[in-house]
From TrEMBL:
Entry GO CC: membrane
Tree of life domain: Bacteria
Keywords: Flavoprotein, FMN
Membrane-crossing segments per the record: none
Pfam families associated with the record: FMN_red (PF03358)
The family this protein is said to belong to: Belongs to the WrbA family.
Organism of origin: Pseudoalteromonas luteoviolacea DSM 6061
UniProt name for this protein: Trp operon repressor
GO MF assignments: FMN binding; NAD(P)H dehydrogenase (quinone) activity
Length: 183
């Protein structure tokens, strides 16, 4: 079974809730899942290492929206990965992205594209949410073809909608299926 890294930063719990949905879905499929963060905020958090990236067969990467960009904690980590980039150690590994914002037009799609940039530079195979996921067409909250997303509202609610949960699960399933095929 593939080893899949779920790597995220969460400020108010929304991205953490999405990471948990992705983790649980991957785990249910039988993947060896590693849940990692960029900064230890909770006692159970495990901080990512470059070795985690090298050893994974697939990656789900999430961050809250910061003016259409990833959180500084995530960017700081990616800026340390030039050595594995030079060696091509992430080339052809499947990857997906997920994000959360405070409003429908708070920058989720721009952030998902921003999260994709270091993955593309590393030669990873980026996958999104295809339109055969029915919730993508009917959601009134988060969800984009670029990746899973959540709209937390001005209260920063980490509670995911049913559509957001289904989109997270569909993306995780797709990541698992492609990672397994590439083993």
């Amino acid at each position: 079974m593939p080893t899949i890294l779920v790597l995220y930063h969460s400020s108010h719990g929304s991205v953490s809730a999405m990471a948990d949905e992705i983790y649980e879905t991957l785990n249910a499929h039988g993947a060896d899942v590693k849940l990692r963060t960029f900064v230890k905020k909770q006692p159970h958090d495990v901080v990512v290492t470059k070795q985690d990236l090298i050893e994974c067969d697939g990656l789900a990467f999430g961050s809250p929206t910061r003016f259409g960009m990833m959180a500084a904690q995530a960017k700081t980590f990616w800026e340390t990965t030039s050595d594995i980039w030079l060696k091509g150690q992430l080339i052809d590994k499947p990857a997906c992205v997920f994000s959360s914002s405070s409003s429908m037009h708070g920058g989720n799609e721009a952030t998902l594209l921003n999260l994709s940039l270091p993955l593309l530079h590393h030669g990873m195979m980026l996958m999104g949410v295809p339109y055969d996921v029915p919730e993508l067409l009917s959601t009134q909250s988060g969800g984009t073809p670029y990746g899973a997303s959540h709209v937390a509202g001005m209260e920063n609610s980490p509670e995911l909608t049913e559509a957001e949960i289904k989109i997270c699960r569909a993306l995780a399933t797709r990541l698992f299926d492609i990672s397994k095929k590439l083993l």
